[in-house]
Every structure is written in C-alpha cells, then in structure tokens.
Design goal:
four-stranded antiparallel sheet; globular
C-alpha cells in the first residue's frame, strides 16, 4: 500500500483487488449448498496469491460496472461484559416485496431479485435456495474475542466500505480512533445504472493529486460531493481488550449517532 489511506497507490491497489473479488463473486457465489467451489477455496492463500499476481501496480484493469440499489440500515452494540451485536436490516428495493406481515407492519424483502435466471449458473433461481446478497454485518476478532464491530449500508458498496475502513483501522493504525477512520474520504467503484461506465467515484475531499494520479493509472475517475451517501453510512465500535474501553463511531454522511450509557 501507499503511505496513507488517501494515497493514489493505496486506492489503486484496493480498487484492483475489489475488481478481482467481485469477479469471483459473480462467477461463484450462491447458496452454500449450491456452490461449485467451496468458500474456503476462494480464501486459500495459494489461490489468493494467483489472483494477487494479476494486479498491475501501474495500470487499472477493465471491469464491468456493478449495479445495486437498496433500502438498508446498520447498527451495532457492545457492553462491558464482552457481548457485541452487528446487525443489518434491509428491504433491498424501497418497500421490498410490497408484502407486509399481517398485524405487524413488517415489510418483507425482495432479495430474490439477486438470483440469476441462467439455469447453468450456481446462483440460479430455485426452490429452497438463498440468493446472493450484499449484506455484511461484520465482526473482527482478536484472541478469540470481538475487537471491532462494523457495518454499513450501500448495496455493492458495502464490501468496498469494509475494505477501506478495515484498512484504515488495521493497516494504518487508526484502531484507537474509529471516528476518524469513518470520516476519511472514501471511494466506490462500479456503481450506477445500466450502461454507465465502470467509474471510480471519489468523494470531493480526496487530494486532487490522488485523483490525477489515478487517472494516469487508467481509472475513469469522477468526483462527487464531500460527504456522499454513495460511499455508504458506516458505523463501528472498537473494543480495547486490555482496558475494556469501548469506542463508538457514527457516520456523518447519515442520520446517525454513537451513544454510550
């Protein structure tokens, strides 16, 4: 990686890794009972090394644009006894399926839209199958116990936000200040409507030299507003296992709050 999370070298390598991960997702990911490749095989170090070698540190690779929309919230909670919860609720599209549980007012999702209609695809529509989805209520463990509770809304941007914030927290040493990590300018790649180019969208607070260098590396770069919902609404709690201190962080891009009591 580069010298910091906003360096062009860092962004370039993370975007290129994202492209390979999304290619694997599109080709392989499905209901675990229907996958033709074991999930562990996609995380095998030897396989990851072959994928890693496909990244050119000096040139952006071609990639199809991802398309996703949704209606998702994320929340997390932790207490002094070591319990932690990472939770996402999502209707997927707007009001989801348009069906409501009688007497409760709970809208049912329509994530079946994420199935493939190609019967030869591992993610093909079928009975008793779960579709591919983008939800990632995550938790990172250290010494067998929760150390980071983290998540975001954002469709296909969810794994990209995870990649950036976890990199800032761990690789760039921001674990003691999760709020600063979440407030860093973020990017998202491959979002948009059918026919849109596979752009790399940067928040406007990125250094101009970063955007210029990324264009030199072959990325189609565009800038959005300084605090954009396109890059997700991320929230986190970090747990200091030595002291028991909990640090909460909420995303200023959202109607959000980090509360303690």
């Amino acid at each position: 990686l580069g010298d910091g999370p906003l360096d062009a070298e860092t962004v370039h390598l993370l975007v290129e890794a994202k492209k390979l991960a999304f290619a694997d997702r599109a080709a392989c990911l499905a209901d675990p009972d229907c996958m033709r490749v074991a999930p562990r095989a996609l995380l095998d170090e030897a396989y990851l090394d072959t994928r890693r070698r496909q990244i050119d540190p000096q040139r952006a690779a071609a990639s199809p644009a991802g398309i996703s929309a949704g209606d998702t919230i994320y929340l997390c909670a932790a207490d002094g006894e070591g319990n932690a919860v990472s939770l996402i609720q999502s209707n997927y599209m707007g009001v989801g399926s348009g069906l409501v549980v009688p007497g409760y007012g709970v809208e049912l999702h329509n994530r079946g839209c994420s199935f493939s209609l190609d019967p030869a695809h591992p993610n093909a529509l079928g009975p008793r199958r779960q579709p591919l989805h983008t939800l990632i209520p995550s938790m990172a463990f250290k010494n067998g116990r929760p150390a980071i509770v983290f998540g975001t809304m954002g469709g296909d941007g969810q794994p990209q936000t995870h990649l950036q914030v976890y990199t800032a927290l761990i690789a760039f040493g921001m674990i003691d200040d999760p709020q600063a990590a979440i407030e860093l300018p973020r990017w998202v790649h491959g979002r948009g409507l059918p026919g849109d180019p596979p752009e790399l969208v940067l928040e406007g607070r990125f250094p101009r030299q970063t955007a210029a260098r990324l264009r030199e590396l072959g990325h189609e770069v565009s800038l959005t507003e300084d605090w954009s919902s396109m890059v997700g609404h991320a929230h986190a709690i970090t747990i200091d296992q030595a002291t028991g201190v909990l640090r909460g962080a909420a995303d200023p891009r959202a109607d959000s709050l980090a509360a303690a009591w």
